[in-house]
């Protein structure tokens, strides 16, 4: 995840919650991608604070540094080094076709080269560790497919070097939409007051945001005719409660929207209050976060360095 914007319940339900589940099944590396964040200007002090905040949120969510590695991208120089070598084998046309690049560049008069090269750096993040599976959501599927293409192109040019990562994703999480516009995915870069519930929002703000959420013109919940706003609220409740579709239908059918929103708010607050308490304990312990990140980088660096040496040998570069 990027250390920019505020992590919200969509990030938790769509990714973090599932990362916690898979850490017992896989050898996991969880990265805070600060090099990706600076494709757009970040105020330096704010960026450093966000890096620490995201690390603490990873831990508060239940990611265990004894079971996996939590690290910061820029702490392992091999990320940037491999990205350059992969850039040299990646056709510009592949990058210009990327949906996210086209969408973001269309909103700006000019863009930095980092925005175009973003998917190559993401490929380096994955290929550096010879990853077999990448647990990302469907919005990142195109980037993952590009990673596969880059790996296959490099392997065809220089011989088998990279594991081509699988596109099947374990335990895909809930897709949570914006509370103000349920046709768009909840985004941490969106600044609208009613768009998202941030993981560190206080209970009164959480309740206020949910009570203002967009619904539809029906008087009460009817799953057969419900609009996207109502379905989004039900998805949030279901993802936090871990209950079946049938239980959701039985519990909420016929409920008026004010009561629906109240119950969703209660459910979210009940889950985020202990989460926030863990976050406060983690951040109050002097030196703990820095130690976790330092140990995480030290654990993965030998893998990264080994991959870079192999790539240099394959390309004929000085090693």
Write down the CATH topology of the largest domain.
Rossmann fold
Query: What's the helix count?
Result: 13
First CA to last CA: what distance?
32 Å
CATH superfamily of the largest domain: HUPs
How many structural domains does the protein architecture include? 2
Q: What can be said about the biggest beta sheet?
A: 2 strands, parallel
Rg over alpha carbons: 21 Å
Question: Strands of the largest sheet, in order across it?
Answer: 1-2
The strand count comes to 2
The helix fraction, in percent, is 55-70%
- Classified by CATH, the class of the largest domain is Alpha Beta
Strand content: under 5%
Could you spell the SSE succession in H and E letters?
A: HEHHEHHHHHHHHHH
Overall CATH architecture of the largest domain: 3-Layer(aba) Sandwich
Map the helices and strands.
Blueprint: H1 9-22, E1 29-32, H2 34-37, H3 44-61, E2 69-72, H4 78-87, H5 92-96, H6 99-106, H7 113-127, H8 141-158, H9 203-211, H10 228-241, H11 245-252, H12 257-284, H13 288-315
Helix pairs in contact: 3-12, 4-7, 4-13, 7-8, 9-12, 10-12
């Amino acid at each position: 995840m990027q250390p920019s914007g505020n992590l919200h319940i969509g990030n938790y339900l769509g990714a973090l919650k599932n990362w916690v589940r898979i850490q017992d099944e896989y050898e996991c590396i969880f990265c805070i991608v600060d090099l990706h964040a600076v494709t757009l200007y970040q105020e330096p002090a704010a960026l450093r604070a966000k890096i620490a905040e995201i690390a603490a949120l990873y831990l508060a969510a239940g990611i265990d540094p004894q079971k996996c590695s939590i690290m910061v991208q820029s702490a392992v120089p091999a990320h940037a080094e491999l990205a350059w070598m992969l850039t040299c084998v990646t056709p510009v046309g592949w990058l210009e076709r990327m949906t996210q690049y086209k969408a973001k560049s269309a909103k700006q008069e000019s863009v930095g080269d980092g925005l175009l090269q973003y998917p190559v750096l993401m490929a380096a993040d994955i290929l550096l560790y010879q990853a077999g599976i990448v647990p990302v959501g469907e919005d990142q599927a195109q980037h993952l497919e590009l990673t596969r293409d880059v790996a296959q192109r490099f392997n065809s040019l220089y011989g088998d070097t990279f594991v081509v990562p699988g596109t099947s994703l374990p335990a895909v999480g809930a897709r949570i939409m914006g509370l103000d516009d349920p046709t768009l995915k909840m985004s941490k870069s969106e600044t609208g007051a009613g768009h998202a519930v941030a993981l560190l929002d206080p209970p009164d703000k959480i309740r206020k945001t949910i009570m203002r959420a967009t619904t539809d013109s029906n008087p009460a919940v009817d799953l057969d005719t419900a609009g996207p706003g109502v379905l989004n609220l039900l998805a949030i409740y279901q993802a936090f409660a871990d209950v079946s579709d049938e239980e959701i239908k039985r519990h909420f059918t016929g409920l008026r929207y004010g009561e629906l929103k109240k119950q969703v708010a209660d459910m979210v607050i009940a889950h985020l209050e202990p989460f926030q308490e863990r976050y406060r304990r983690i951040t109050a312990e002097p030196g703990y976060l820095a130690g976790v990140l330092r140990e995480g980088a030290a654990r993965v660096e030998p893998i990264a360095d080994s991959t870079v040496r192999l790539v240099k040998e394959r390309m004929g570069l000085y090693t």
